[in-house]
Amino acid sequence: NLKSAGITSPEVRLGNFSWETQKNALSKIENLQKQLDSYSKRSLDAKGKLTYVLLSDSLKRQQAIAQYPLYEEVLTPSSGVTSQLPILLAEYPFYDKQDVEDYLTLLSQMEEYFKDILTFEQKKADAGLFMSDKSCMKVIDGCEVFTEHPDDNFLLETFANRLDSMDGLSASDKETYITRNQEVIADHVIPAYTQMISGLTKLLGCGRNDWGLCQYKDGKAYYEALVSYNTGLDLTIEEIEQQITDAREEDTAFCSDLLTKNPKLLAESSDPKWTMTDENEMIETLKKAMLADFPAAPDTTYEVCHVDPALSEYLAPAFYITAPIDDYSYNRIYINDANKYNDVSYFTTLAHEGFPGHLYQTISSYAAGDPKVQALLNYPAYTEGWATYVEMQAYYYADLPKDVAALLQHNQAATLSLYASSDIGIHYHGWKKPEMLKFWSNYGISDEETIDAITDLVLEDPGNYLKYYVGYLQFRQLHDKYAQKNGDRFDTVAFHEAILRTGPSPFAILDEQIEKALQ
Predict the structure, then answer these.
(1) Under 8 Å between Cβ of 387 and 508
(2) DSSP state, 356?
(3) Residue with more model confidence, 237 or 12
(4) 416: burial class by Cβ within 10 Å (0-12, 13-18, 19+)?
(5) Rounded CA gap, 393 and 351, in Å?
(6) pTM metric for this prediction
(7) Rounded Cα–Cα distance for residues 415 and 370 (Å)
């Protein structure tokens, strides 16, 4: 309810990505920090004090990144604006006619929005910070696929489906809206993507660096700020790197010991006997099995959807669309069939995105009554780290022999750590192809094509794998810390409940909240 939140006339716009906006971001953040500092914390209750601390911490991390406005890249092939926006538009809910009007207004702004992004990309090119031709061509290819069949664009079908679900909409109103949607897609959406293709094509050849951020003048400093933002940690890169290495040694040693005791496990884990194929059955199985370790989920509904083929090549293997802040009964999990899930990995992926992963995490924080302003805070390692942490737990919820589950879980953790180390290696230490080949060959992976594909993923989205792995590692370390500290009194459900009640936060603050809850 907008009125109850003090919003009487919300502006209907996609946003502003002009160079001026980006350039002025730092001063705006600093002004917000000054306003926050002017409030007295003494009169606040416990939740208010926590929110105050979280806001201050978040602004501090944003300030560090905002010092390098031209280093941000919003056109990454799989998680950039051109690939993500269509999915977000397809998920735009229609509750009444005004929502439909607002949606059509947003669509009509896409040319101007994309024009701003292209101006920003030109600024990056002028500063020698434009993306590599390889990344640029992937973005162009994704835009071309989206515009390939303009009369059969999936935004036409999803629009009509949402109208069907509305109450009180006459047949003539529906027909009028469908016609207007067709017109706005033809007149604004497709031209916006065509404009993006043309603009990026002109910028091909402007990229001066095909490798990591550290190859740029302020690249190392930006990467340090980005890692702090993505991980919610105040450790040095070297300290984070050491944690990753230590954890990988633990996991590889665990796998080695298991295989020494039972060499047959290698064959059993390579082809685990997996019979469950229905995705809803898997989710319901997870909801029941997780009760041994996690609080029961709040009542909600969910739907598993599949990515439209027009977007599948450039979108993530799976993702969860965050529930509306005022209605956590509306939940969508998207599966990208291009990933060809056919074994236990589908089960663990649904755990990551659904229960006890992102979906469960989101609705549990909402149900805990956290102040709504906290939904604006972004702590990627809390959200992605949690989802990865429970994904690892899901191997033990699958109907697998215990040692097979353990081998798969520890091997998956070790593999993900290799991606995290590669991220730091490329973007902070300056690794190029020879260093990547040498590093991965140390762990028995020498196929050049595979390593090139991994390299591309790391180059396209700096710091991304640290959200997942370093976040997972912090949850794992917190679990071990309190399990050891409390011994037989340790309550896993209470531990997880403390995490969920705190909500997205940096790990030092999360640790403090867990300490209080488990006293």
Answers:
(1) no
(2) S
(3) 237
(4) buried
(5) 9
(6) 0.94
(7) 35
* Residues in contact with 195: Cβ distance below 8 Å, sequence separation at least 6, in sequence order: 111, 114, 115, 118
Residue type, 381: A
Cα separation, 62 vs 450, whole angstroms: 35
Asked if 371 and 365 count as a contact pair (C-beta separation under 8 A), the reply is no
Please name the helix (run of DSSP H) or strand (run of DSSP E) that holds residue 94, with its range, or none: none
User: For residue 303, what are the β-bridge partners?
Assistant: 332
Q: Which helix (H) or strand (E) holds 337?
A: none
Greatest C-alpha distance within the chain: 71
Tokens matching residue 235: 């450790």
What distance in Å separates the CA atoms of residue 478 and residue 245, rounded to the nearest whole number? 18
Kindly give, in sequence order, each residue whose CB lies less than 8 Å from that of residue 377, ignoring residues fewer than 6 positions away: 54, 55, 58, 504, 505
Calculate the CA 359 to chain-centre distance: 13
pLDDT in tens, 319-376: 999 988 888 888 999 999 888 887 899 999 999 999 999 999 999 988 888 888 888 8
Do 132 and 86 form a contact (C-beta atoms < 8 A)?
no
3-state secondary structure of 303: strand
